[in-house]
Design a protein that fits this description.
binds iron/sulfur cluster; 22 strands
Length: 513
Protein backbone atom coordinates (compact mmCIF):
# COMPACT_ATOMS: atom_id res chain seq x y z
CA UNK A 1 0.00 0.00 0.00
CA UNK A 2 1.28 3.43 -0.81
CA UNK A 3 0.07 6.97 -1.07
CA UNK A 4 0.41 8.95 -4.26
CA UNK A 5 -0.40 12.57 -5.08
CA UNK A 6 0.01 14.92 -8.04
CA UNK A 7 -0.72 18.66 -8.22
CA UNK A 8 -0.79 20.92 -11.25
CA UNK A 9 -1.19 24.63 -10.57
CA UNK A 10 -1.49 27.38 -13.13
CA UNK A 11 -0.40 29.99 -10.57
CA UNK A 12 1.95 28.76 -7.91
CA UNK A 13 4.78 26.46 -6.91
CA UNK A 14 3.49 23.05 -5.78
CA UNK A 15 6.25 21.60 -3.56
CA UNK A 16 4.79 22.98 -0.32
CA UNK A 17 1.37 21.55 -1.08
CA UNK A 18 2.85 18.22 -2.13
CA UNK A 19 4.58 18.09 1.25
CA UNK A 20 1.30 18.83 3.04
CA UNK A 21 -0.39 16.16 0.95
CA UNK A 22 2.20 13.54 1.85
CA UNK A 23 1.71 14.33 5.54
CA UNK A 24 -1.98 13.59 4.97
CA UNK A 25 -1.04 10.30 3.26
CA UNK A 26 1.55 9.21 5.82
CA UNK A 27 -0.77 6.48 7.17
CA UNK A 28 -0.47 4.73 3.77
CA UNK A 29 3.26 4.18 4.10
CA UNK A 30 6.13 5.02 6.42
CA UNK A 31 9.08 3.32 4.76
CA UNK A 32 10.18 5.94 2.26
CA UNK A 33 8.89 8.96 0.41
CA UNK A 34 9.78 11.16 -2.52
CA UNK A 35 8.77 14.18 -4.48
CA UNK A 36 9.53 15.26 -8.05
CA UNK A 37 8.68 18.58 -9.68
CA UNK A 38 9.79 20.23 -12.89
CA UNK A 39 10.46 23.60 -14.42
CA UNK A 40 12.72 23.10 -17.45
CA UNK A 41 14.35 20.15 -15.62
CA UNK A 42 13.27 17.62 -13.02
CA UNK A 43 13.96 18.29 -9.34
CA UNK A 44 13.68 15.43 -6.88
CA UNK A 45 14.13 14.53 -3.25
CA UNK A 46 13.70 11.01 -1.88
CA UNK A 47 14.51 9.43 1.45
CA UNK A 48 13.65 6.67 3.87
CA UNK A 49 11.50 7.10 6.96
CA UNK A 50 8.82 9.62 7.83
CA UNK A 51 7.95 12.59 5.63
CA UNK A 52 8.96 15.06 8.34
CA UNK A 53 12.45 13.51 8.50
CA UNK A 54 13.06 13.49 4.74
CA UNK A 55 12.18 17.01 3.69
CA UNK A 56 13.65 20.22 5.08
CA UNK A 57 13.74 23.87 4.04
CA UNK A 58 16.89 23.39 1.96
CA UNK A 59 15.73 20.48 -0.17
CA UNK A 60 12.21 21.91 -0.44
CA UNK A 61 13.66 25.10 -1.92
CA UNK A 62 15.17 23.06 -4.76
CA UNK A 63 11.80 21.53 -5.72
CA UNK A 64 10.81 24.25 -8.16
CA UNK A 65 7.82 24.02 -10.47
CA UNK A 66 4.08 24.28 -10.82
CA UNK A 67 3.65 20.59 -11.64
CA UNK A 68 4.78 17.76 -9.40
CA UNK A 69 4.11 14.37 -7.85
CA UNK A 70 4.75 12.87 -4.43
CA UNK A 71 4.76 9.36 -3.04
CA UNK A 72 4.91 7.65 0.33
CA UNK A 73 5.92 4.02 0.42
CA UNK A 74 4.48 1.12 2.35
CA UNK A 75 7.06 -1.12 4.02
CA UNK A 76 6.69 -4.63 2.67
CA UNK A 77 8.63 -6.75 0.21
CA UNK A 78 10.66 -5.02 -2.44
CA UNK A 79 13.34 -3.45 -0.32
CA UNK A 80 13.82 -0.72 2.21
CA UNK A 81 16.49 1.24 0.42
CA UNK A 82 16.22 4.61 -1.20
CA UNK A 83 16.49 2.93 -4.63
CA UNK A 84 12.94 1.64 -4.11
CA UNK A 85 11.52 5.08 -3.38
CA UNK A 86 9.29 6.83 -5.91
CA UNK A 87 8.75 8.83 -8.11
CA UNK A 88 10.93 7.33 -10.85
CA UNK A 89 11.86 8.98 -14.13
CA UNK A 90 13.19 8.37 -17.61
CA UNK A 91 14.83 10.92 -19.90
CA UNK A 92 13.41 9.48 -23.11
CA UNK A 93 11.10 10.59 -24.61
CA UNK A 94 10.57 14.18 -23.38
CA UNK A 95 11.45 13.36 -19.75
CA UNK A 96 8.74 11.49 -17.85
CA UNK A 97 8.31 10.92 -14.11
CA UNK A 98 5.81 8.58 -12.46
CA UNK A 99 4.59 7.29 -9.10
CA UNK A 100 1.90 4.78 -8.30
CA UNK A 101 -0.05 2.71 -5.81
CA UNK A 102 -0.51 -0.97 -6.63
CA UNK A 103 1.13 -4.25 -7.65
CA UNK A 104 1.74 -5.92 -10.97
CA UNK A 105 0.90 -9.62 -11.09
CA UNK A 106 3.09 -10.28 -14.15
CA UNK A 107 6.05 -8.16 -13.00
CA UNK A 108 8.74 -10.80 -13.60
CA UNK A 109 7.63 -11.47 -17.16
CA UNK A 110 7.42 -7.77 -17.93
CA UNK A 111 10.87 -6.96 -16.55
CA UNK A 112 12.41 -9.46 -18.97
CA UNK A 113 10.19 -8.35 -21.84
CA UNK A 114 11.01 -4.69 -21.33
CA UNK A 115 14.73 -5.48 -21.41
CA UNK A 116 14.70 -8.00 -24.27
CA UNK A 117 12.13 -6.35 -26.53
CA UNK A 118 12.23 -2.65 -25.65
CA UNK A 119 15.93 -2.54 -24.64
CA UNK A 120 15.15 -0.67 -21.46
CA UNK A 121 16.73 -1.54 -18.11
CA UNK A 122 14.63 -1.80 -14.97
CA UNK A 123 17.00 -0.54 -12.30
CA UNK A 124 14.90 -1.11 -9.17
CA UNK A 125 12.33 -3.63 -8.00
CA UNK A 126 9.36 -1.28 -7.99
CA UNK A 127 6.50 -1.97 -10.38
CA UNK A 128 6.15 1.62 -11.45
CA UNK A 129 9.49 1.51 -13.23
CA UNK A 130 8.09 -1.22 -15.48
CA UNK A 131 4.92 0.76 -16.15
CA UNK A 132 6.98 3.89 -16.83
CA UNK A 133 9.17 2.15 -19.41
CA UNK A 134 6.25 0.46 -21.18
CA UNK A 135 4.51 3.83 -21.39
CA UNK A 136 7.66 5.71 -22.45
CA UNK A 137 8.61 3.14 -25.07
CA UNK A 138 5.13 3.22 -26.61
CA UNK A 139 5.13 7.03 -26.65
CA UNK A 140 8.57 7.05 -28.24
CA UNK A 141 7.68 4.49 -30.92
CA UNK A 142 4.50 5.72 -32.56
CA UNK A 143 2.90 3.50 -35.16
CA UNK A 144 3.06 4.78 -38.72
CA UNK A 145 -0.57 5.94 -38.57
CA UNK A 146 0.13 7.84 -35.28
CA UNK A 147 1.90 10.73 -37.01
CA UNK A 148 -1.13 12.95 -37.31
CA UNK A 149 -2.48 12.14 -33.87
CA UNK A 150 -2.82 14.82 -31.20
CA UNK A 151 -0.51 14.52 -28.21
CA UNK A 152 -3.44 13.28 -26.10
CA UNK A 153 -4.17 10.56 -28.66
CA UNK A 154 -0.52 9.52 -28.51
CA UNK A 155 -0.77 9.33 -24.70
CA UNK A 156 -3.91 7.20 -25.04
CA UNK A 157 -2.06 4.81 -27.33
CA UNK A 158 0.77 4.54 -24.79
CA UNK A 159 -1.58 3.95 -21.83
CA UNK A 160 -3.51 1.43 -23.91
CA UNK A 161 -0.24 -0.46 -24.33
CA UNK A 162 0.21 -0.45 -20.54
CA UNK A 163 -3.35 -1.75 -20.08
CA UNK A 164 -2.69 -4.44 -22.66
CA UNK A 165 0.57 -5.65 -21.12
CA UNK A 166 0.36 -4.96 -17.38
CA UNK A 167 -1.87 -7.17 -15.25
CA UNK A 168 -2.70 -6.15 -11.69
CA UNK A 169 -3.59 -3.07 -9.70
CA UNK A 170 -2.14 0.34 -10.50
CA UNK A 171 -3.20 3.92 -9.93
CA UNK A 172 -0.59 6.05 -11.67
CA UNK A 173 0.29 9.76 -11.67
CA UNK A 174 3.00 11.06 -13.98
CA UNK A 175 4.41 14.26 -15.40
CA UNK A 176 5.80 14.86 -18.88
CA UNK A 177 8.40 17.60 -19.19
CA UNK A 178 7.02 20.84 -20.66
CA UNK A 179 3.69 19.10 -21.38
CA UNK A 180 1.86 18.57 -18.09
CA UNK A 181 0.40 15.71 -16.07
CA UNK A 182 -0.88 12.27 -17.04
CA UNK A 183 -3.02 10.10 -14.75
CA UNK A 184 -4.49 6.63 -15.23
CA UNK A 185 -6.06 3.79 -13.23
CA UNK A 186 -6.09 0.08 -14.05
CA UNK A 187 -9.19 -1.21 -15.86
CA UNK A 188 -10.64 -2.75 -12.67
CA UNK A 189 -9.94 0.33 -10.54
CA UNK A 190 -8.59 -1.82 -7.72
CA UNK A 191 -6.53 0.87 -6.00
CA UNK A 192 -8.15 4.24 -5.25
CA UNK A 193 -7.47 7.49 -7.11
CA UNK A 194 -9.52 10.62 -6.43
CA UNK A 195 -9.44 13.98 -8.16
CA UNK A 196 -9.99 17.48 -6.87
CA UNK A 197 -10.23 21.05 -8.21
CA UNK A 198 -9.53 24.53 -6.86
CA UNK A 199 -10.60 27.72 -8.60
CA UNK A 200 -8.09 30.57 -8.79
CA UNK A 201 -8.91 34.28 -8.74
CA UNK A 202 -8.04 34.63 -12.43
CA UNK A 203 -10.57 31.97 -13.44
CA UNK A 204 -8.02 29.21 -13.92
CA UNK A 205 -8.27 25.86 -12.12
CA UNK A 206 -5.66 23.94 -10.12
CA UNK A 207 -5.95 20.15 -10.06
CA UNK A 208 -5.00 17.48 -7.59
CA UNK A 209 -5.02 13.67 -7.92
CA UNK A 210 -4.42 11.50 -4.87
CA UNK A 211 -4.94 8.11 -3.24
CA UNK A 212 -7.29 9.73 -0.74
CA UNK A 213 -9.16 12.99 -0.18
CA UNK A 214 -7.46 13.56 3.18
CA UNK A 215 -5.57 16.72 2.16
CA UNK A 216 -8.35 18.36 0.13
CA UNK A 217 -9.81 20.46 2.94
CA UNK A 218 -6.44 21.72 4.19
CA UNK A 219 -5.37 22.77 0.69
CA UNK A 220 -8.71 24.21 -0.41
CA UNK A 221 -9.51 21.57 -3.05
CA UNK A 222 -13.00 20.26 -3.69
CA UNK A 223 -13.73 16.67 -4.57
CA UNK A 224 -14.30 16.20 -8.30
CA UNK A 225 -15.00 12.45 -8.33
CA UNK A 226 -12.67 9.57 -9.09
CA UNK A 227 -10.42 8.61 -11.90
CA UNK A 228 -12.59 5.91 -13.48
CA UNK A 229 -11.32 2.36 -14.03
CA UNK A 230 -9.52 2.22 -17.36
CA UNK A 231 -9.51 6.02 -17.68
CA UNK A 232 -6.60 8.21 -18.77
CA UNK A 233 -6.49 11.94 -18.01
CA UNK A 234 -4.01 14.41 -19.48
CA UNK A 235 -3.80 18.00 -18.20
CA UNK A 236 -1.80 20.47 -20.22
CA UNK A 237 0.36 23.00 -18.36
CA UNK A 238 -2.23 25.70 -19.14
CA UNK A 239 -4.87 23.63 -17.33
CA UNK A 240 -6.68 22.19 -20.38
CA UNK A 241 -8.04 18.75 -19.49
CA UNK A 242 -8.41 15.74 -21.79
CA UNK A 243 -9.87 12.45 -20.62
CA UNK A 244 -10.96 9.15 -22.12
CA UNK A 245 -11.98 5.73 -20.84
CA UNK A 246 -9.87 3.26 -22.77
CA UNK A 247 -10.99 -0.02 -21.25
CA UNK A 248 -14.23 -0.81 -19.51
CA UNK A 249 -13.98 -3.82 -17.20
CA UNK A 250 -15.81 -4.78 -14.02
CA UNK A 251 -15.19 -2.06 -11.41
CA UNK A 252 -13.80 -3.88 -8.36
CA UNK A 253 -12.13 -1.50 -5.90
CA UNK A 254 -10.34 -2.96 -2.87
CA UNK A 255 -12.72 -3.56 0.04
CA UNK A 256 -9.83 -3.56 2.51
CA UNK A 257 -9.43 0.19 2.01
CA UNK A 258 -12.76 0.59 3.81
CA UNK A 259 -11.99 -2.06 6.41
CA UNK A 260 -8.56 -0.85 7.44
CA UNK A 261 -6.32 1.24 5.23
CA UNK A 262 -8.04 4.45 4.33
CA UNK A 263 -8.25 7.29 6.82
CA UNK A 264 -11.81 7.51 8.20
CA UNK A 265 -12.33 11.03 6.83
CA UNK A 266 -11.64 9.79 3.27
CA UNK A 267 -14.21 9.51 0.57
CA UNK A 268 -13.32 6.70 -1.82
CA UNK A 269 -15.31 5.83 -4.93
CA UNK A 270 -18.05 8.24 -3.73
CA UNK A 271 -18.38 6.34 -0.43
CA UNK A 272 -17.54 7.80 2.99
CA UNK A 273 -15.05 5.48 4.69
CA UNK A 274 -16.29 6.59 8.11
CA UNK A 275 -19.93 5.88 7.28
CA UNK A 276 -19.05 2.49 5.78
CA UNK A 277 -17.29 1.57 9.05
CA UNK A 278 -20.33 2.66 11.06
CA UNK A 279 -22.45 0.36 8.89
CA UNK A 280 -19.95 -2.49 9.38
CA UNK A 281 -20.46 -2.19 13.16
CA UNK A 282 -24.21 -1.98 12.71
CA UNK A 283 -24.37 -5.13 10.55
CA UNK A 284 -22.05 -6.97 12.89
CA UNK A 285 -24.22 -6.12 15.91
CA UNK A 286 -27.36 -7.32 14.12
CA UNK A 287 -25.60 -10.59 13.41
CA UNK A 288 -24.51 -10.85 17.09
CA UNK A 289 -28.10 -10.37 18.24
CA UNK A 290 -29.25 -13.13 15.88
CA UNK A 291 -26.57 -15.59 16.94
CA UNK A 292 -26.29 -14.72 20.65
CA UNK A 293 -29.62 -13.13 21.64
CA UNK A 294 -29.10 -13.86 25.31
CA UNK A 295 -25.49 -12.73 25.62
CA UNK A 296 -25.03 -9.03 26.31
CA UNK A 297 -21.54 -7.84 27.26
CA UNK A 298 -20.98 -5.18 29.95
CA UNK A 299 -18.84 -3.03 27.68
CA UNK A 300 -17.74 -2.83 24.03
CA UNK A 301 -14.09 -1.92 23.50
CA UNK A 302 -12.46 -1.18 20.14
CA UNK A 303 -9.04 -2.48 19.27
CA UNK A 304 -7.74 1.04 18.62
CA UNK A 305 -7.87 2.85 16.49
CA UNK A 306 -9.23 1.74 13.09
CA UNK A 307 -11.98 -0.26 14.82
CA UNK A 308 -13.19 2.74 16.88
CA UNK A 309 -15.88 3.64 14.36
CA UNK A 310 -17.33 0.12 13.96
CA UNK A 311 -17.21 -0.41 17.74
CA UNK A 312 -19.15 2.80 18.30
CA UNK A 313 -22.06 1.72 16.13
CA UNK A 314 -21.85 -1.88 17.39
CA UNK A 315 -22.28 -0.67 20.99
CA UNK A 316 -25.08 1.69 19.96
CA UNK A 317 -26.96 -1.07 18.12
CA UNK A 318 -26.57 -3.42 21.10
CA UNK A 319 -27.45 -0.74 23.65
CA UNK A 320 -24.22 -1.37 25.54
CA UNK A 321 -21.67 1.11 26.90
CA UNK A 322 -18.79 1.96 24.53
CA UNK A 323 -15.50 2.17 26.36
CA UNK A 324 -12.00 3.17 25.35
CA UNK A 325 -10.67 0.37 27.49
CA UNK A 326 -7.39 0.15 25.63
CA UNK A 327 -5.22 3.26 25.56
CA UNK A 328 -3.13 3.60 22.43
CA UNK A 329 0.20 5.34 22.54
CA UNK A 330 -0.06 7.69 19.55
CA UNK A 331 3.68 7.88 19.02
CA UNK A 332 4.14 4.31 17.79
CA UNK A 333 3.38 3.37 14.17
CA UNK A 334 0.62 1.02 13.02
CA UNK A 335 1.81 -2.51 13.75
CA UNK A 336 0.20 -4.04 10.67
CA UNK A 337 2.53 -2.18 8.42
CA UNK A 338 5.73 -2.70 10.35
CA UNK A 339 8.17 -5.11 8.72
CA UNK A 340 9.03 -8.38 10.42
CA UNK A 341 6.98 -10.58 12.70
CA UNK A 342 9.14 -10.17 15.81
CA UNK A 343 8.91 -6.41 15.67
CA UNK A 344 5.14 -6.67 15.24
CA UNK A 345 4.76 -8.99 18.26
CA UNK A 346 6.84 -6.80 20.53
CA UNK A 347 5.13 -3.60 19.57
CA UNK A 348 1.60 -4.53 20.73
CA UNK A 349 2.35 -4.05 24.41
CA UNK A 350 4.31 -0.90 23.76
CA UNK A 351 1.41 0.48 21.89
CA UNK A 352 -1.67 -0.56 23.88
CA UNK A 353 -2.33 -0.30 27.60
CA UNK A 354 -5.55 -1.74 29.07
CA UNK A 355 -7.48 0.51 31.47
CA UNK A 356 -8.13 -1.63 34.53
CA UNK A 357 -11.13 0.34 35.85
CA UNK A 358 -12.92 -0.24 32.59
CA UNK A 359 -12.15 -3.94 32.39
CA UNK A 360 -11.95 -5.59 35.82
CA UNK A 361 -14.86 -7.95 36.63
CA UNK A 362 -16.69 -7.16 33.39
CA UNK A 363 -17.67 -9.20 30.36
CA UNK A 364 -15.79 -7.43 27.59
CA UNK A 365 -16.54 -7.51 23.89
CA UNK A 366 -13.64 -6.38 21.73
CA UNK A 367 -14.32 -5.12 18.20
CA UNK A 368 -11.44 -5.23 15.72
CA UNK A 369 -11.41 -4.14 12.08
CA UNK A 370 -9.98 -7.49 10.95
CA UNK A 371 -7.93 -10.48 12.03
CA UNK A 372 -5.08 -11.00 9.62
CA UNK A 373 -2.25 -12.87 11.29
CA UNK A 374 -4.03 -13.09 14.64
CA UNK A 375 -0.98 -12.20 16.76
CA UNK A 376 -2.15 -8.73 17.68
CA UNK A 377 -5.66 -9.95 18.48
CA UNK A 378 -4.29 -12.75 20.67
CA UNK A 379 -2.07 -10.28 22.56
CA UNK A 380 -4.98 -7.91 23.11
CA UNK A 381 -7.13 -10.72 24.50
CA UNK A 382 -4.35 -11.79 26.81
CA UNK A 383 -3.86 -8.23 28.09
CA UNK A 384 -7.59 -7.76 28.71
CA UNK A 385 -7.71 -11.04 30.66
CA UNK A 386 -4.64 -10.01 32.69
CA UNK A 387 -6.53 -6.90 33.73
CA UNK A 388 -9.38 -8.89 35.21
CA UNK A 389 -12.05 -9.35 32.51
CA UNK A 390 -14.59 -12.03 33.52
CA UNK A 391 -15.21 -13.05 29.92
CA UNK A 392 -13.78 -11.88 26.60
CA UNK A 393 -15.73 -11.90 23.32
CA UNK A 394 -14.10 -10.85 20.06
CA UNK A 395 -15.79 -9.72 16.84
CA UNK A 396 -14.16 -8.80 13.55
CA UNK A 397 -15.69 -6.22 11.20
CA UNK A 398 -14.06 -8.11 8.33
CA UNK A 399 -14.75 -11.75 7.37
CA UNK A 400 -11.88 -14.27 7.67
CA UNK A 401 -8.86 -13.27 5.60
CA UNK A 402 -7.89 -16.53 3.88
CA UNK A 403 -5.90 -15.64 0.78
CA UNK A 404 -2.88 -13.51 -0.01
CA UNK A 405 -3.25 -10.16 -1.73
CA UNK A 406 -1.34 -9.69 -4.97
CA UNK A 407 -2.79 -6.25 -5.58
CA UNK A 408 -0.76 -4.18 -3.15
CA UNK A 409 -1.58 -5.07 0.45
CA UNK A 410 0.79 -6.75 2.88
CA UNK A 411 -0.98 -10.00 3.71
CA UNK A 412 1.35 -12.19 1.78
CA UNK A 413 1.19 -15.91 2.43
CA UNK A 414 -1.47 -18.37 3.48
CA UNK A 415 0.95 -19.75 6.07
CA UNK A 416 0.79 -16.45 7.93
CA UNK A 417 -2.95 -15.84 7.72
CA UNK A 418 -4.83 -16.99 10.81
CA UNK A 419 -7.89 -18.09 8.84
CA UNK A 420 -6.13 -19.74 5.90
CA UNK A 421 -5.70 -23.13 7.53
CA UNK A 422 -7.86 -22.89 10.65
CA UNK A 423 -11.60 -23.03 11.35
CA UNK A 424 -13.29 -20.27 13.36
CA UNK A 425 -13.38 -22.47 16.46
CA UNK A 426 -9.65 -23.20 16.09
CA UNK A 427 -8.89 -19.49 15.86
CA UNK A 428 -11.16 -18.87 18.84
CA UNK A 429 -9.06 -21.34 20.81
CA UNK A 430 -5.79 -19.91 19.50
CA UNK A 431 -6.81 -16.40 20.55
CA UNK A 432 -8.13 -17.57 23.92
CA UNK A 433 -11.57 -15.94 23.61
CA UNK A 434 -14.93 -17.15 24.89
CA UNK A 435 -16.70 -16.28 21.63
CA UNK A 436 -15.24 -15.24 18.28
CA UNK A 437 -17.53 -13.92 15.57
CA UNK A 438 -16.70 -12.67 12.09
CA UNK A 439 -18.65 -10.39 9.79
CA UNK A 440 -20.29 -12.21 6.85
CA UNK A 441 -19.05 -11.29 3.38
CA UNK A 442 -22.48 -10.12 2.20
CA UNK A 443 -22.90 -7.95 5.29
CA UNK A 444 -19.53 -6.33 4.63
CA UNK A 445 -20.35 -5.64 1.00
CA UNK A 446 -23.73 -4.23 2.05
CA UNK A 447 -22.04 -1.97 4.61
CA UNK A 448 -19.65 -0.56 2.01
CA UNK A 449 -22.08 -0.18 -0.88
CA UNK A 450 -25.36 0.74 0.91
CA UNK A 451 -24.99 4.48 0.29
CA UNK A 452 -23.18 6.79 -2.11
CA UNK A 453 -23.47 7.45 -5.83
CA UNK A 454 -20.88 4.81 -6.63
CA UNK A 455 -20.88 2.51 -9.62
CA UNK A 456 -19.00 -0.36 -8.01
CA UNK A 457 -19.90 -3.70 -9.62
CA UNK A 458 -18.62 -5.68 -6.65
CA UNK A 459 -15.56 -4.82 -4.56
CA UNK A 460 -12.37 -6.84 -4.83
CA UNK A 461 -12.47 -9.41 -2.01
CA UNK A 462 -9.86 -11.82 -3.31
CA UNK A 463 -8.22 -12.02 0.12
CA UNK A 464 -11.57 -13.16 1.53
CA UNK A 465 -12.96 -15.41 -1.22
CA UNK A 466 -9.95 -16.24 -3.43
CA UNK A 467 -11.54 -14.74 -6.56
CA UNK A 468 -8.77 -12.73 -8.22
CA UNK A 469 -10.36 -10.39 -10.70
CA UNK A 470 -7.41 -10.29 -13.11
CA UNK A 471 -8.04 -13.98 -13.79
CA UNK A 472 -4.38 -14.95 -14.00
CA UNK A 473 -3.71 -16.25 -10.48
CA UNK A 474 -4.17 -20.00 -10.00
CA UNK A 475 -2.95 -22.37 -7.29
CA UNK A 476 0.38 -22.95 -8.99
CA UNK A 477 1.12 -19.24 -9.47
CA UNK A 478 -0.02 -18.51 -5.93
CA UNK A 479 2.40 -21.12 -4.57
CA UNK A 480 5.36 -19.76 -6.48
CA UNK A 481 4.53 -16.14 -5.61
CA UNK A 482 4.25 -17.07 -1.95
CA UNK A 483 7.60 -18.84 -2.03
CA UNK A 484 9.25 -15.82 -3.55
CA UNK A 485 7.55 -13.54 -1.06
CA UNK A 486 8.78 -15.64 1.88
CA UNK A 487 12.26 -15.50 0.43
CA UNK A 488 12.04 -11.74 0.03
CA UNK A 489 10.76 -11.35 3.57
CA UNK A 490 13.54 -13.31 5.21
CA UNK A 491 16.02 -11.26 3.22
CA UNK A 492 14.41 -8.01 4.28
CA UNK A 493 14.26 -8.99 7.94
CA UNK A 494 18.04 -9.12 7.73
CA UNK A 495 18.10 -5.87 5.82
CA UNK A 496 15.99 -4.24 8.48
CA UNK A 497 18.46 -4.99 11.25
CA UNK A 498 21.54 -4.62 9.12
CA UNK A 499 20.94 -2.40 6.12
CA UNK A 500 22.87 -3.40 3.04
CA UNK A 501 22.47 -2.91 -0.68
CA UNK A 502 19.52 -4.83 -2.01
CA UNK A 503 19.78 -7.55 -4.63
CA UNK A 504 18.21 -6.19 -7.73
CA UNK A 505 17.60 -9.33 -9.75
CA UNK A 506 14.72 -9.74 -12.16
CA UNK A 507 12.98 -12.48 -10.23
CA UNK A 508 10.97 -11.14 -7.35
CA UNK A 509 7.47 -10.77 -6.02
CA UNK A 510 5.67 -7.71 -7.15
CA UNK A 511 6.67 -5.00 -4.74
CA UNK A 512 3.90 -3.35 -2.82
CA UNK A 513 3.70 0.30 -3.46
FE1 LIG B 1 -7.86 -5.39 -1.29
FE2 LIG B 1 -8.00 -7.94 -0.53
FE3 LIG B 1 -8.38 -7.26 -3.10
FE4 LIG B 1 -5.96 -7.07 -1.99
S1 LIG B 1 -7.12 -8.94 -2.35
S2 LIG B 1 -6.93 -5.56 -3.32
S3 LIG B 1 -6.48 -6.43 0.11
S4 LIG B 1 -9.64 -6.70 -1.31
Amino acid sequence: MCGVVGILSTQKQVAGELYESLIHLQHRGQDAAGMMTYNKRFHEKKGTGYIRDIFDERNMARLQGQVGIGHTRYPTVGGFSIEEAQPVMTHVPYGISMAHNGNLVNYNTLVNEVYEQDHRLINSSVDIEVILHIFAHALDHPKSDDKDLSFFDQICRAVDTVFHRASGAYSVIGTIMNKGMVVFRDPHGIRPLVKGVRQNDDGTTDRIFASETTMFYALGFELDGNVAPGEVIYIEENGTVHSRILKNEQFTPCIFEYVYFARPDSIQNEISVYRSRLRMGQNLAKRWKEEYPKIVPDIVIPAPSTANTAALSFAHELGVRFSEGLYKNPFIGRTFIMPGQEIRKKSVRYKLVPQEFEIRDKTVLIVDDSIVRGNTSKEIVRMVREFGAKKVFFVSACPPVKFPCFYGVDMPTRGELAAAQRSVSEIEKYMGVDILMYQKIDDLVEAVTRRGEHNIDRPCMACLNGQYITGDIDEHIMDSMEQQRNHERSKHCLLYTSPSPRDRGCSRMPSSA
